[in-house]
Structure formats: structure tokens, C-alpha cells
Write a structure and sequence with these properties.
43% of the residues lie in helices and 16% in strands. The chain has 13 helices and twelve strands. The strands form two sheets. Strands 1-11-10-7-8-12 form a six-stranded antiparallel β-sheet. A hairpin with a 2-residue loop joins strand 7 and strand 8. The two termini are 13 Å apart. 41% of the residues are buried.
Length: 437
């Protein structure tokens, strides 16, 4: 087993904006792992939750996964530039609609990566995939380039919401692939689109996709999707909470050899998005939901007219006093309309969906067949642990497996699958601890 590095936390470049509490209505978890065959982690991720209710209404929540490509540290730098630039740029573009703002932010990231690549021979040609998910009042909006993926689980139906910009997918879409034999001979790691290599990049926008309570969204690099099937991804998401699901998915990819870095973000909508303050009360500190910034020139003119009215009154020029007061009233009304008006250009989508997703779909249920498959994985891993003398918490392991057996006998396959995957993660965590120690 190769050396490992600590898992990076999701980057949140603007922590001051995250003052609201969404735990009661949104569950999310993120995990990135170097895998078993790479010396460094070239994946990056970012999570930026809305800072308050007004921020949610206008910008929503932002989630990003990027998978860097390039020699030495180039790929790592490219993916970090992508996540940091988008996370910092998108929330500031309040004059643009969400699709326009996220597109501008991704293109800005592309420009920065390309510029850094051109300026240094060591970084020349570096690039990164980028998949960005916006959770908005209007639905989920995606901005995407590369083969990192976004999925949605609704009930037992898993859908891939993004198109892989890979040679395999492009050839299939153009009708050049007609059977599996041809497909097997095409390299699956050839990317046709990414941020950085070129001065301009075409970015796919998908959505907005309507949101239902219970919907679960997943973003991942191909370190996961290349090793774990869609059916397995969907079933695991349906059986475990986000914090456990991300760990199990990473562990399963590593059990399959872990040939690449693995990054996963899971987001589950558990209620209407209503911000709470840290005191667990509804967030009202941000003021009315539809306040807008007022042009500073308007405030200046209002002040000048008010002072002019005061000066005219002091000098007993009553006609001029009335004129200046009338101007002040008009300017005040204009300022109020601008501040509290109902015009909301920042949240309009033009009335039509973007993109052509979803692109694939499969049914994912924790049935007896899937239980048998997880049992086989557990048995193989447990046999290896015993033969290799791993330091394992056997009591905890037996407790999880006993509970899974009881659930299986009762026909609760969802719980049986969940507990068996918990057992897998327990053994993997203790194996990792032994190796790191």
C-alpha cells in the first residue's frame, strides 16, 4: 500500500459568509482521499452555504468538485485554482442571474488556470475537470466541464445529471460506438474538455432541476465512478446518511484498488431551506427578503436636495424650499423602490431549462441480491483481516454483523446493507490506522 496523506477539508474561501445554520433542512458531507496508488491528491472540493436567508434566495448553496491533471504539482494547483476562484467569484456577481454568474465564475477560473500554465513551463498545459452544483430556490443548476459527475437520487432512482466529456461518451453520442466490443478498445481516461489547457472553454449548464424533499445529490471525481457502479452508488446513498455514505463510497473504491484520487460530496435536502441563526431561531437579521443595494449617487443627490431645502428655508426662500423638498421626496421614493422593490433579475432563468440531462438512469434498491453481494465483500475482507492479523475491533464488528443478520431475517434489507457497509468501513479505518501508524 502506497503512502497516504490526510484528507483535505472542503475549501470554504469565505467563511465569514457562512453564519446561518441549515442543519435542520440540509445534510451534507464531503470527503477526499488520495487513493492507494497516487503520491499526492490532485482533487479539490469546496462547499459554500448561504450566509443568510436573503443570500439563499439570491445565490443558493454552492458545491464544487475538481479533478486536476498535469505533471508534478500542476494538477493539484489547477484544481485548487478552480474551486477557490469559483467559490470566491460566484457569490459576488449579484448583478447577474445564477446561470450567468456561475458561467462567468467558471470561465474566470479557466482564465486563471490557463494564465498560470502559460507563465510557467512546469505548469504548461495543466488542467482540471470541474463540476459545480447550485442548490437554488428554483431548483438545482449545474455547471460542468470534464468527466467528474453529478448524480441525483430520488427514491430508488439514480440519475446522472452531467454528460462525461470523455472520448468514450463523445463517440457514443456521435454514433461511432455501436457495440461493447468497440467500447472495450477505447481508452476511458481521455478527456475532451477541461478548464485550463485552452484560453476559452465550453461549459455545460444543466437545469434547473426541481427539488423534492428527500432528494440526494452526489458530486464525485472519476476515482469513485471508475470503481463503483451507479447501482452501488445509489443503493449506498439510499441506505446511509451523508456522513457515512461518503466514507463507505471512498472505502469501496479503495477496496477495488484505489487507482486514483477519490472525492465525494453528498447533499440531502431534508426540509424547506429556512435559515436559522446559531441560536436556532429563524434568521431575520438580514432584513426583508427582497432588499436590493441602492445606487450611492442616489443617496448623494438625496442629501444635497435635503440640505438645499434646509438652506432655502433658513433664507426664507419658500418657493425654493418647496421645490427642494419635492425633489427630496421623489428621490426618497426612488431609493425605497430600488431598495425594497420586487424586481429580481438575479434569480431569473428565462423560463426554459438548460442542457439535456439527465443522461443515464438506473434503479437502486437494497434487495436480497444486493445484500448477498455486500455479505460476500464483508466475508472476503474479514478473512483477509484474520489472515493478516489486522488489529480489528472484533466485538464492534460482530455487533454490526449480528444486527445486519437480524435485519435481513426481518426483510429490512436497507438496514442490513447499511450495517454491512458500516462493518466494511470499520475494518478499512483500522487498516488505515495501522498503516499510518
Amino acid at each position: 500500500m502506497s503512502s497516504r496523506i490526510p484528507n483535505p477539508e472542503p475549501r470554504t474561501p469565505n467563511p465569514d459568509s457562512q453564519t446561518a445554520n441549515w442543519d435542520h433542512c440540509l445534510k451534507h458531507a464531503a470527503l477526499s482521499d488520495v487513493g492507494l496508488r497516487r503520491a499526492n491528491n490532485q482533487d479539490s472540493m469546496a462547499v459554500v452555504l448561504a450566509g443568510n436567508q436573503d443570500n439563499w434566495r439570491r445565490r443558493g448553496h454552492l458545491f464544487i468538485v475538481a479533478d486536476g491533471m498535469g505533471a508534478h504539482a500542476a494538477g493539484e494547483l489547477a484544481s485548487k485554482l478552480a474551486t477557490d476562484t469559483i467559490a470566491l467569484t460566484y457569490p459576488k456577481l449579484l448583478e447577474k442571474s445564477p446561470p450567468e454568474a456561475i458561467l462567468t465564475a467558471v470561465q474566470s477560473a479557466n482564465a486563471q488556470i490557463h494564465s498560470r500554465g502559460q507563465a510557467n513551463l512546469d505548469f504548461k498545459g495543466m488542467g482540471t475537470t470541474c463540476t459545480t452544483l447550485l442548490l437554488l430556490p428554483q431548483g438545482v443548476l449545474l455547471a460542468h466541464a470534464g468527466d467528474s459527475r453529478a448524480y441525483r437520487l430520488r427514491g430508488e432512482r439514480l440519475e446522472q445529471m452531467t454528460f462525461d466529456h470523455s472520448l468514450v461518451w463523445e463517440m457514443r453520442a456521435s454514433g461511432q460506438i455501436i457495440d461493447d466490443q468497440v467500447l472495450d478498445n477505447i481508452p476511458k481516461n481521455v478527456i475532451t474538455r477541461s478548464l485550463g489547457p485552452n484560453a476559452q472553454v465550453k461549459v455545460d449548464l444543466e437545469g434547473p432541476f426541481p427539488i423534492k424533499l428527500g432528494d440526494t445529490f452526489l458530486l464525485c471525481s472519476d476515482g469513485l465512478s471508475g470503481q463503483v457502479t451507479d447501482e452501488e452508488i445509489g443503493t449506498i446513498l439510499g441506505c446511509l446518511p451523508p456522513t457515512e455514505a461518503v466514507q463507505v463510497l471512498v472505502d469501496l473504491a479503495n477496496l477495488r484498488g484505489g487507482p486514483d484520487n477519490i472525492t465525494v460530496i453528498v447533499v440531502r435536502v431534508t426540509g424547506p431551506q429556512v435559515a436559522h441563526s446559531h441560536g436556532s431561531q429563524t434568521d431575520t437579521a438580514s432584513g426583508p427578503a427582497n432588499t436590493q443595494p441602492v445606487n450611492p449617487l442616489l443617496w448623494t443627490l438625496l442629501g444635497v436636495s435635503a440640505l438645499a431645502a434646509l438652506g432655502a428655508a433658513v433664507m426664507e426662500y419658500w418657493i425654493w424650499t418647496l421645490v427642494c423638498l419635492a425633489v427630496s421626496v421623489v428621490l426618497g421614493v426612488v431609493a425605497l423602490v430600488q431598495r425594497y422593490g420586487t424586481s429580481e433579475p438575479a434569480v431569473q432563468f428565462g423560463g426554459r431549462p438548460l442542457g439535456k440531462g439527465p443522461y443515464t438512469a438506473c434503479d437502486c434498491s437494497a434487495n436480497r441480491e444486493f445484500v448477498d453481494r455486500t455479505t460476500e465483500i464483508v466475508d472476503q475482507l474479514r478473512d483477509t483481516a484474520m489472515k493478516e492479523g489486522w488489529k480489528t475491533d472484533w466485538n464492534r464488528l460482530d455487533s454490526l454483523l449480528d444486527r445486519a443478520g437480524v435485519a435481513e431475517q426481518a426483510g429490512d434489507y436497507r438496514r442490513a446493507v447499511g450495517d454491512r457497509f458500516r462493518a466494511i468501513s470499520l475494518m478499512m479505518a483500522q487498516l488505515k490506522h495501522q498503516h499510518d501508524g
